[in-house]
Design goal:
Length: 164
């Protein structure tokens, strides 16, 4: 299947990211060491047991117009994969929790969201900008880092990681 992503930037093409962050950038295939972070509902994000579930993590901002459309597709993915071995997580690049809560309510987004962007960026990707979508497979290995807005069918295709 040919994906029609609008932008996919291999990390090797962005050497300035590595210079700005002396700790090694997570690479495709690396085992993810999930940090402890808090979700907006006050619960803690727990690291999945290897083999239990894959994760799709979307870094976004409430001021990003591309994120509005992208997050609508992520919401569809979240709804269509309930009960499957896939966790959907949003990570807000915002300072004010009230803004994020209002953004989620206005757009009827129900996937879990954290504002703990620094530890999640360190564990998953330091790629700048929003939206950035990161996929971790069921074995907890980093599989994809996708920069930019994606088409709906490409976001929904990420459900394949729940079955792999």
């Amino acid at each position: 299947m040919t994906l029609r992503r609008r932008a996919l930037w291999p990390l090797a093409l962005l050497p300035w990211v590595a210079r700005a962050n002396p700790v090694a950038e997570p690479a495709q295939g690396d085992l993810v060491r999930w940090p402890e972070v808090t979700l907006l509902d006050g619960s803690r994000l727990l690291a999945p047991t290897p083999g239990a579930q894959a994760s799709v993590v979307v870094f976004f901002s409430t001021t990003c117009p591309f994120c509005v459309r992208h997050n609508a597709h992520v919401q569809k993915l979240h709804e269509r994969t309930r009960g499957q071995a896939l966790r959907v997580l949003g990570v807000a690049h915002d300072r004010h929790e009230a803004w994020v809560r209002r953004y989620l309510a206005q757009r009827e987004l129900s996937f879990p969201v954290s504002m703990d962007q620094a530890p999640l960026h360190a564990a998953l990707s330091r790629l700048p900008g929003t939206p950035v979508t990161v996929v971790v497979d069921r074995q907890q290995r980093l599989r994809e880092v996708i920069r930019g807005e994606m088409f709906e069918e490409d976001v929904l295709e990420l459900a394949r990681y729940a079955r792999a």
